[in-house]
Specification:
350 residues; alpha/beta; 42% helix; 15% strand; binds zinc ion
Length: 350
């Protein structure tokens, strides 16, 4: 199998600029592109998403879409209209506090996700990339994690907990709370991925798992990997955390390579395609060699589907960008071109 190499792309819906950028992405050795498809696109840009997709296909790219920060429950630097429109369909913490994140069990949110899938099918994408699905995360909301402050404790979740465990949903952490939260994500993704196939059987599903969970074997990952409509299993061990310039630096060893091995193991056992993502954003000049090292780790793990977040090291977002975005972008491109050539050479030998 030849390499599938890609990058995420966002910020621009001006077709002239998109065309120029896609040419640049092509030159970097990419053969797929992930277009973020957020709530603004869903309301205001369906036609432009279709045009951008047609343009991408014409240039030979496979097209991924991610539900960028939709409902606040997927990865992405964007805001949610849903949580403002439907506060009653949002998550509630175990403390009773309402938070601006859609509840994955609320019918209203499921309907909304179905409308997003239909818009994706209309726009013509090939792969729906369910990126970092999560419940409320304390650290992402500038809070210190406290095990007894968790979601979701809304009325729907309380009723479903009672139905499942035949007891009242506790407001402190228990093994059943952990199991219920895992099931919340698994059942939501079962709904999302099966709806995708119903709407358009040709569309694939990728699920990108957050590497923030140290359980291994991970019962949630095991259940997700068994979902019949999941085609690709990905993870994104981004080693440099916020704040990007001064934040904690995770060593790549024991993190990127470990999660690469984990995703390969679980994908192979469940007959799914493994995919790895590397970080191009938020890197200082001295961090640039990390890019090559992370790519080597994915290559060494035997992963043939590799992508980077994101286009020109996210220079269109000043909070996210790397210190020298062009150098980061070039480093990715050099490695991708080398991977592409290595496959071409091995084909010739045969
Ligand atoms: Zn809920």
């Amino acid at each position: 199998m030849s390499y599938k190499l890609g990058t995420s792309y966002f910020s621009t819906r001006i077709l002239e600029h998109v065309e120029k950028d896609l040419k640049e992405i092509k030159k970097q050795g990419c053969n797929f592109v992930l277009h973020t498809f957020d709530e603004v696109d869903l309301y205001y840009n369906k036609e432009n998403m279709k045009r951008i997709t047609e343009m991408s296909h014409k240039m030979g790219f496979e097209v991924y879409y991610s539900p960028w920060a939709i409902g606040g429950v997927f990865g992405g630097e964007c805001y949610s209209r849903f949580v403002m429109q439907y506060p009653d369909a949002c998550q509630v913490l175990s403390t009773g506090e309402k938070v601006g994140f859609a509840c994955l069990r609320q019918p209203k949110f499921k309907e909304y996700i179905k409308s997003w899938i239909e818009a994706c099918a209309y726009a013509g994408g090939d792969v729906l990339f369910w990126d970092e699905p999560h419940l409320w995360i304390a650290e992402w909301n500038d809070r210190v994690s406290n095990k007894n402050e968790f979601s979701c404790h809304c009325s729907v979740c309380q009723a479903e907990f009672k139905e499942h465990f035949h007891k009242t949903y506790p407001n402190h952490w228990t093994p059943e709370v952990e199991e219920f939260r895992d099931l919340t994500l698994v059942e939501f993704l079962r709904f999302a991925t099966s709806t995708t196939k119903k709407v358009n059987p040709k569309m694939k599903n990728a699920v990108c798992l957050l590497p923030n969970d140290n359980r291994w074997p991970n019962p949630m990952w095991e259940k997700l990997a068994k979902l019949p409509d999941v085609d690709i299993l990905a993870t994104d061990p981004y080693w440099k955390q916020r704040p990007y310039a001064t934040g904690r630096r995770d060593p790549l060893e024991g993190f990127v390579d470990t999660f690469a091995r984990k995703i390969v193991d679980i994908a192979k056992r469940n007959h799914k395609e493994p995919q790895g993502w590397i970080q191009l954003y938020g890197l200082r000049k001295q961090d640039e060699p990390d890019i090559t090292q992370a790519l080597e780790m994915w290559e060494k793990a035997g992963v043939k589907n590799i992508a980077a977040w994101g286009f020109r090291a996210c220079e269109s977002y000043s909070l996210l960008t790397s210190e020298r975005p062009q150098e980061c972008w070039k480093r990715m491109g050099d490695f991708f071109k080398k991977l592409g050539k290595s496959k071409a050479a091995s084909k010739k030998k045969k």
